[in-house]
Amino acid sequence: MTRYWQLFRDSAFLYRFKRDKVAIVSFAVLVILVMLSFCAPLIAPFDPYDPTQIDIMDSDIPPVWQAEGDPRFRLGTDAQGRDMLSTMLYGTRISIIIGLFAVLLQSLLGIALGLVAGYFGGRIDSFLMRLADIQLSFSTLMVAIVVLAVFQASFGTELYNELAIFMLIMVIGIAEWPQYARTVRASVLAEKKKEYVDAVRVIGLHPRRIMFRHILPNTLSPILVISTVQVANAIMSEAALSFLGLGMPVNKPSLGSLINSGFEYILSGSWWITTFPALLLVVLVLVINLLGDWMRDVLNPKLYKD
Amino acid sequence: MALLEVRNLEVRFPLRGGELTALRDLSFSLNQGERLGIVGESGAGKSVAAFAILNLVSRPGYISAGSVLFEGRDLASLAPEQLRSIRGNRIAMIFQDPMMTLNPVLTIGTQMVECLQAHREISDKEAREIAVSKLRSVSIPAPAARMDQYPHELSGGMRQRVVIAIALLTEPSVIIADEPTTALDVTIQAEIMELLLELCENNNVALLLITHDLGVVSQVTQRTIVMYAGRIVEEGATRSIIDNPWHPYTHGLIDALPERTHRGQRLNQIPGMMPSLSAIPEGCAFHPRCEHMTELCQTQIPGYTLRDERRVACHWVEKQGESR
Amino acid sequence: MIAFLVRRIGQALVVMFIISLLSFSIQDNLGDPLRELVGQSVSEAERQKMRDSMGLNDPFITQYWRFLKKAVQGDLGNSYFFKRPALEVILEKLPATLELVIGATLIILILSVPIGVYCAINPRSWFTKVMMGISIVGISIPVFLTAIMLIYVFSIWLGWLPSFGRGETVTVAGWETGFLTTDGLLHLILPSIALSSIMLPLFIRLIRSEMMEVLEQDYIRFAWAKGLHRKRIWFIHALKNTLLPVITVGGVQIGTMIAYTILTETVFQWPGMGFLFLEAVNRVDTPLIIAYLIIVGLIFVITNTVVDLIYGLVNPTVKLARGHT
Question: Which CATH number does the domain housing residue A30 bear?
């Protein structure tokens, strides 16, 4: 463990990180957002999931610096009387959880299928890659909208609301596997061509173990880069789905559903219900994208391209 | 006056944490119709020299000092449009790998006609006629049919013939050939080299041949420059260099030629490796591999010793000359 | 060419088969046709009898075959809400969505190529740095947020542009178009910008990075050595090679674009297919949902084939007969 830490400390990765202001600021903002949202139950002034803490009489209060502001609600309240700040902290946590778990699912599925396709080749490979082509051309968001719409229509809103978070993770997670599968497959194919694979076979050993021991480290940096950008994409997809009313329900809102709930009131002047969660969402996605971009430059992996 | 004269040319590459000098103090001249070879191992700066002449050093590299005089004009400081009228027109270039040199999405015809039209007011029809005749002159079968083909439909050898035909299109006075046969099959290397030699002789074109192969140089060129770690270490008539190399590095190169090795004997190799440009040793860059190395070699870069129309950069040779 | 088309049509049939199977299972699971017909008051025995006579108790394959035969004839059932053939309802909304997509595609094409090329040629200029900064912010703002922002700024705040609906339209040869009226065009501006807002920065970045890679290639250096004009090098030699991977990505992005139309149409209440689809989902209007899926599936298949054809025509190393996917 200490040896790895030593390696990391002396690496070009860290050296370049320390010299890049954008990367440092993005990383800092991301860490702060993650910390704040995961400590939401500890630091949020209210619990937006607790109906006893919500009073409909407090609805539509503007932020504290405006004339009708209320010092209890620093960023104002939404149409149901929930404290914006608390709801946003909880909402960010939901958005980040969905993003992380969806990407975890994507990467596991994609890496496994990519290994299978690359290692076995032949029919399995061409079947999986054709499937990946079709899957990609349909786009995650489209597939997710259709699946969630059908699911919601067939099971009813009530049951759907309870299962929403799992459904979102499943749908976003399953729909994006081709990205990983293609990258992993490409490096398996590259590894297969190398001489040691033949050499190992000649001395009568099975090359599988050694190959995989080589492949996974080789694909680590492209997977890292893909994953970063994918977390941002997953959060965006979740927000879009919630905005369409196919994602998180109003009583357990993510950033997307908060924006959606505020959208109706933007014309009547309650701009803060939409604006604050929107800003938070953009900042969250932006810093992740900036980090992904920076990592792509530093690690310079050969990402799979058509 | 020489047709092409390179004076104290220096090329640098700014990199993270300092600059690399890929080429230092390069000076030589090339006369009308002359054939000059530049030899050295890969990484010696030969290709950089070739590209620097046409001011085509790849970014972020740049010419940091010196001049390239072509017919008396300095190419390194010429305005872009004037430089363009010389590139491909008066000085043509042949690249190493014909698989990469031709644009994959344009037909052979397009890539030839555009070159002519970039330098002359000429109709499509006339340009095509010239192009076809040049393809014929490099012995490409069915030249008219090739015009509408794409590079991927041709073999490597055929493609290099096309590249040579493109170089000849505008009847240049100088052709710079950067390892023109290295990427080809051994069986057609000699063919292409002969073709190039013949065309240069017939059209009185000066040839600057960049190669790592002393054997090729000895067959084609009249004069030879040997480069090591970005610098010229020896220059002179090809015959005299091959027969009597002065610089220990040139010596090593010649000894390593397969022809010089007797049957059953191991190939003679120069011990050690060429240093990377980021770690060029103090003093004479060759000293760690040199059998005649002295203390002086470790500290002081040798100047050029001029004798019998040859020059060499070596302390050992210099000292021998004095004692003689 | 013919072999390519045959292969492509084969693939298209497979995709449409999957969609039809999906659609049928949705119909099978979603909503009981009997309930729509007779309500709650009929006894269980009578229901069974009606089921038998309607073929609802037939094996899955038989039912699916019946569904398929009707679907091929364009009969996807009546919309529960509109009480009219679902296909007819969807097709009425098709022009609105297509015009929105055309508007956004035009914006993307007209802006992304010149900006991307400029940024690749001048990587150190201030304009490039500004564009790269804007574009990463651009891809980080969800489409629906851009849409809301546009409405807020240009409709509510400045009052320059309309924000809801298609405005005045005229019908030309059965196609209801907003292209031919000033009002229609004004209504198209904000939705088109919103729809292109993520794709545009994505394509600028893609074109820039592909072009920068191409500019490093030997054949570009050779083009310089040939003494060609720089415009010819950039716009003929480099751009053509740059566009090949961009076309491929463009094909993949069509699906995303259709998904974004749902979002854009929702925010702008644009009377297109996406808006209709979301309404149908909320009303559990199964035939309409199915009709939408089938039309969207057809659009995917057609556009992907066209993109492949264009790719084959631009790239001489692809023989259309052999195909490449």
Answer: 1.10.3720.10
Report the amino acid identity of residue C154: F
Q: What does the angle CA A275 – CA A279 – CA A280 come to, to the nearest 5 degrees?
A: 120
Where in chain B does DSSP place strands (E)?
4-15, 18-30, 35-39, 62-70, 73-74, 91-94, 174-178, 206-211, 223-228, 231-237, 305-307, 310-312
The bridge status of strand B35-39 relative to strand B223-228 is parallel
A277: cis peptide before it, omega within 30°? no
- Contact A43/C at CB under 8 A: no
| The residue type at B166 | I
Helix axes C60-72, C2-29, angle to 10 degrees: 120
Cα–Cα distance, C272 to C287 (Å, whole number):
17
Which domains are assigned to chain B? 4-90+170-273+280-322 (3.40.50.300), 103-169 (no CATH)
Query: What is the tens place of the pLDDT at every residue in B174-229?
Result: 999 998 888 888 888 888 888 889 888 888 899 999 998 888 888 889 999 999 88
Q: Is the pLDDT of residue B324 over 70?
A: no
Chain A hits for C264, CB-CB cut-off 8 Å, are none
Question: Which residues of chain B are within 8 Å of residue C244 when distances are taken between CB atoms?
Answer: 105
- How far is it between the farthest Cα atoms of chain B? 68
- Mean pLDDT comparison of C68-77, C168-177, C225-234, highest-scoring range: C225-234
Q: Which residue type does B118 have?
A: A
Residues in chain B: 324
Q: Which residues of A touch C140 (CB under 8 A)?
A: 232, 236, 282, 285-286, 289
**How many other CB atoms are found less than 10 A from the CB of residue A149?**
25
Residue located via tokens 């002393």: B214
Give the torsion sign (CA, A13, A18, A20, A25). positive
Q: Classify residue A135: in a domain, yes or no.
A: yes
Residues A262-299: tens digit of each pLDDT: 877 777 777 788 888 889 999 999 999 999 888 888 87
Asked if the C-beta of A268 comes within 8 angstroms of chain C's C-beta atoms, the answer is no
Cα separation, A251 vs A37, whole angstroms: 17
Identify the pLDDT of residue B323. Answer: 57
Distances in Å between the Cα of C70 and the Cα atoms of A165, B159, C74, C87, C226 are 38, 58, 6, 12, 63
Instruction: Give the residue numbers in B contacting C (CB under 8 Å), as ranges.
Output: 51, 54, 56, 58, 80, 84-89, 92-93, 95, 97, 100-107, 114-115, 118-119, 150, 152, 163, 166
Q: Please name the chains neighbouring C, where neighbouring means 3+ C-beta pairs under 8 angstroms.
A: A, B
Contact call for residues B310 and B240 (beta carbons, < 8 A): yes
Residue C321 clears pLDDT 50, i.e. is over it: no
What is the residue range of A292's domain? Answer: 20-46+64-299
* A6 domain residue, yes or no: no
For residue range A134-153, what is the model confidence (pLDDT) as tens digits? 777 777 888 888 888 878 77
Percent of chain B with pLDDT over 70: 95
pLDDT of residue C45: 74
Number of inter-chain CB pairs under 8 A, A vs C? 102
Query: With an 8 Å Cβ cutoff, are A137 and C254 in contact?
Result: yes
Residue A9 in domain: no
pTM for this predicted structure: 0.85
- Which 3 state secondary structure label does DSSP give A162? helix
Which residues of C fall within a CB distance of 8 Å from A141?
256, 259-260
State whether CATH 1.10.3720.10 applies to domain C86-322.
yes
| Interatomic CA distance for residues A107 and C207, integer angstroms | 27
Q: What is the DSSP string of A186-205?
A: HHHHHHHHSHHHHHHHHTT-
How far apart CA B159 and CA B151 sit, in angstroms, is 7
The subunits that touch chain A, with at least 3 C-beta pairs less than 8 Å apart, are: C
